[in-house]
Amino acid sequence: MSAPTSSHAYGIGLIALIVGMSVSVVFYTSFYLPESLAKPSVSEHILYPEKDFFIDIVEGAVIEGNENYVPNKPTITLELDNRVVWTNKDDTAHTVTPDHRHEDGYSGEFGSPGVLKPGDTYEFLFTEPQEVPYHCQPHPWMTGKITVEVSRF
Q: How much is the pTM?
């Protein structure tokens, strides 16, 4: 004669499985996920530099051979002037587009979110040493490069 099977054992096992999965979901959404998506810790001096650095897209930049991004290859310093603002002073729309996809650990993806119409600005906060060559998407002869260095003080 075979031993009778108990539906109570099956029910208890099912409840234990549901409780275990619920605990896993709570842990994942409450602790693991927010920690993995958190931005890196960055010094207040880097987040709030002493001054902004300005780059102009000058009038006539669209004409090949003319100056375009001025200054064209600046070096900026973390904590001093690492918030960079590009201003389109030309009468044509332009972009600030990295030559290769580029991401800053804190600020995210670099590059203007579309075209900068005349008078528009694009601002980016650099938070780590890096070198970023960039160009204007519709006018690829317009190129620039920005170098970010650590303060020597």
A: 0.74
* Residue 84 burial (CB count, 10 A): 22
Asked if the peptide bond before residue 71 counts as cis, ω within 30 degrees of 0, the response is: yes
DSSP-based three-state secondary structure for 45: helix
Alpha-carbon span 14 to 98, nearest angstrom: 54
Q: 63-77: per-residue pLDDT in tens? A: 999 999 999 999 999
Q: How far is CA 98 from CA 2, 18, 80, 143, in A?
A: 74, 48, 23, 10
Q: Residue 27 corresponds to which tokens in the numbers above?
A: 């842990």
CA distance 150 to 153: 9
How far apart CA 128 and CA 144 sit, in angstroms, is: 19
Alpha carbons 152 and 77: distance in angstroms, whole number = 9
The matching CATH number, chosen from 3.40.50.2000, 2.60.40.420, 3.40.1190.20, 1.10.10.10, for 44-149 is: 2.60.40.420
Query: pLDDT digits over 136-153, tens only?
Result: 999 999 999 999 999 876
Query: What percent of the chain has a predicted confidence (pLDDT) above 90?
Result: 69
Instruction: Measure CA of the first residue to CA of the last residue in the chain; give whole Å.
Output: 87
